[in-house]
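A quick aside before the break. I want you to see a complete sequence-to-structure record at least once, exactly as it would be stored in a machine-readable document. Don't worry about memorizing anything.
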Amino acid sequence: METIYDILSKEHDQVLDLFEEAISDGSKETFLKIKAELDPHMQGEEKLFYPVLKEKEEARESVLEGYEEHRIAEMLLSELESMDEKEERWHAKIKVLKESIEHHVEEEQNTMFEISRKVLSEEKAEEIAQKYLEFKKNFKGKKEPSVKKI
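That is the input. The structure line, written in tokens, reads:
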């Protein structure tokens, strides 16, 4: 059975591939594919994965950084969504978003996942994976309030 790490890693790879496409073609259409992938991904992590980890002292700092990196990504996604791809800063902003996401993915996979594997059982990682897949299946582009209890 897949764990949350397996699913999130696959999604990270898919989004990073889309960024390569977006940078080479510069189209709003490719950007919208990235946004369609990132919105449920980030919300699912924040609703189902991060809260479980945040309860563990060893993971708390890494999770807090994850929340902040999501805020930066959301800000850039929003700015890009309201821009035209022909605007002078479009390409630069896509690159900054890509770099931010690459950094986040690296930290998540190399730090957060490693800590998580130490503090969560394999069964718990599989349970979170199932809940995450169900959340994504039911995701309709709705934006949940970004107010988090920290």
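Two observations worth writing down. The helical segments are 4-25, 28-54, 60-81, 90-119, 122-138. The chain has five helices and no strands. We'll return to this after the break.
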